[in-house]
Amino acid sequence: MKKLEKLDYRLPKWDMTDLQERHCPICGTLENKQLYLRPDNLVVKNCGVCSVYYISPSPSPEQINQFYAQYDSNHRKTKDLRINKSKLDLIFGTDHFGDLRIRKLASMVDFKNSSFLDVGFGIPYFLYHLQKLGGNVFGVEYDNQAIDYARQSGLDNVFFGKISDLPKELKFDVISMNDLIEHPLNPLDLLNEAFERLNPGGRILIWTPNGDFSKKDPNSTTFRVDLEHMQYFTTKSIAYLASKLNASIEHLECYGFPALGDLVAPQTAMTTAMSKLKTRLKDFYPVHMANEFKRLYLKRAYEFNNRKGSYHLFAILQKK
């Protein structure tokens, strides 16, 4: 078993006396190969049946709940979320099809006659653009700060909690899970719950780190950052999931490279000040327009390059 060196400065302090053995969270297999010891001293195993990578033994559910109760302030370190409603286009951009996931959905569904649920939406870029395209959008989130931010952004149907907290009569054409299913100890429960809330022929959109990226990456970046992740899916495990959920795979691709940003070094007073200055400059219209032109100009080259990568998995599963 290979010991991995620290990369992400945000190192969770798990109580190592309060761990529990896990079966594979997808197929239930118990005996699997130990591959890595993460920087937080948790073991990464790889399932020989469905190929998912997962943490076992893992922190207890109580530890996980305590961790997420302080997730924004202590781990994700979300900046103060205040919004100027007159500058929403400056904040979110005006290219509503700029996101690869939205463009792919546009080839499958009629936004103006579809309902969407984004689970764990965080900063609500995805919901904002879907609503601008005519979608009837909803969101659930455990972060009150993110909910307030979304409502300030004109997104009214966002709620605290999980899928089961929504009125039972609510059904959706698309349920999106962006950077979500790698977090819970029981991701299959979450996915089953989501499928129950789909209309006939509805779709689940999944965006998650690709465990198999480690086979191409000598630095094993996937298992050294975002150490709250409890499992890492692969193309094979997505196919296994689809079979288990009685769903068809409409889309499945590997995409992109790691974007480490400021994960490798904590914010200092200087970097914080520079970040605030950049944020203010972005609101200055000439600077915003210059950045928008640069982004659109480089977009094709950027996407062409990311198509060569495989750090993320992007899947769309359709309910049969």
TrEMBL record:
It holds the Pfam family Methyltransf_23. GO terms for biological process: methylation. This is Methyltransferase domain-containing protein. It comes from the Bacteria. Keywords: Methyltransferase, Transferase. InterPro entries: SAM-dependent_MTases_sf. GO terms for molecular function: methyltransferase activity.
